Amino acid sequence: MSAGRLCRGRPAVAVSECGTGLARALIETASGEARRQGLPTLCLQMRVELPDNHATFARFGSGNVGASVHPACDRPTFYTSERQLGPDAAQQEEER
User: Annotated region Disordered: where (predicted)?
Assistant: First the structure.
């Protein structure tokens, strides 16, 4: 955990489970845990080469805040995305 945010690695859903709501459930569970801890931000990571994941995270209100490189690589290999969980976030989530 970083100051003021709950960070959870790279959530993943099997291709066979896409469209079942599992990704939403994972993100909402992590968001709920951040709120329970009184943290205003959920931090997630995603692999650069998975653009469908970028779109999914964006649909759930996350925005990219940085790129990182694994050791021995010469270009970014994953992004960090943050979702703000302010007081009106719950209402915005219900409207989606």
Answer: 77-96
Q: How many helices (H) and strands (E) does the chain have?
A: 3, 4
Per-domain residue ranges for the chain? Answer: 5-95
Asked if 46 and 10 touch (Cβ cutoff 8 Å), the reply is yes
CATH architecture type of domain 5-95? 3-Layer(aba) Sandwich (3.40)
* pTM for the predicted model, two decimal places: 0.77
How far, in Å, CA of 46 to CA of 19, rounded?
Answer: 18
Torsions phi, psi for 4 (to 5 deg): 75, 10
